[in-house]
Each structure stands twice: as structure tokens, then as C-alpha cells.
């Protein structure tokens, strides 16, 4: 009985503290940017298959702390899908200008989903895995 009460107390405490599960998928807009030194501490180029996720997702990822280079989201794979085309990319950066479910891709990654002349894609589905 004690174990059950302890577990229930734990769950209630999580909700009382405002715990929310990490965002691991979404639908939003995709843009592209010129990579350089990313928030994860590495330097990338336009030909790398990489992505920057929104500040809310980056800083809200479980285990994220004061040093963004040590954020556990860094190096995670994300699959983005748009109009039947998909690309797998690695999370290396934070996108301060992105809304919650928006992503910012490298030019090489964006090009696998659509022509760069599109500039911005709406309805991009993504999954972090």
C-alpha cells in the first residue's frame, strides 16, 4: 500500500509542478538557413543534413541545462516529411525565430523536400527519434 501511495504522490507532484512531456513530433513550417557554429557546439556547412529546432523544443528537452553544447537533443535524428518526400537530419542548432513546431533546415536538407525557391514550406510533419 505504501508503494502505491508513494507512486500516486509522485504523479500528483509532477502535475502540480507543471510537468509536460517533451515535444517529439509536430507539424509546422520549414525554412532553410546558412549553417555555421550551432548551439550544440559544432560547425556545419550547407551540404550537411542538419536541422535547428525551436527554442521552446531545444530548451525544454529533458536534461537541457545552462550549457547548450550538452543538451541531450543535440545529435538526435529528426525525420521531416513534406508532400510525400522525407529527409532525415541531425539536430545541431536552436532556431530562435521559429514557432514551436517550425524547423530550420540546411539548404541540402530543404532541397530534398522542395526547391529552395519555395523559401518556406507549410504543413511539414516531423518526428524526433
UniProtKB/TrEMBL annotation:
Pfam families given in the database record: DPBB_1 (PF03330)
Coiled coil: none
The keyword Signal appears for this protein: yes
Matches recorded under Gene3D superfamilies: RlpA-like domain (2.40.40.10)
Domain RlpA-like protein double-psi beta-barrel: 55-120
First and last residue of the signal peptide: 1-20
SUPFAM superfamilies (UniProt xref): Barwin-like endoglucanases
Domain of life of the source: Eukaryota
Keywords: Signal
Keyword Signal: yes
Name of this chain's protein: RlpA-like protein double-psi beta-barrel domain-containing protein
Organism, scientific name: Antrodiella citrinella
Amino acid at each position: 500500500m505504501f508503494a502505491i501511495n508513494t507512486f500516486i504522490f509522485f504523479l500528483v507532484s509532477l502535475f502540480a509542478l507543471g510537468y509536460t512531456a517533451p515535444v517529439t513530433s509536430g507539424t509546422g513550417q520549414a525554412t532553410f538557413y546558412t549553417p555555421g557554429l550551432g548551439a550544440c557546439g559544432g560547425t556545419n556547412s550547407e551540404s550537411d543534413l542538419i536541422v535547428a529546432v525551436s527554442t521552446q523544443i531545444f530548451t525544454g528537452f529533458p536534461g537541457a541545462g545552462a550549457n547548450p553544447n550538452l543538451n541531450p537533443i543535440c545529435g538526435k535524428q529528426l525525420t521531416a516529411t513534406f508532400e510525400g518526400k522525407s529527409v532525415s537530419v541531425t539536430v545541431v542548432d536552436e532556431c530562435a525565430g521559429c514557432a514551436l513546431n517550425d524547423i530550420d533546415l540546411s539548404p541540402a536538407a530543404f532541397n530534398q523536400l522542395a526547391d529552395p525557391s519555395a523559401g518556406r514550406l507549410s504543413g511539414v510533419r516531423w518526428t524526433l527519434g
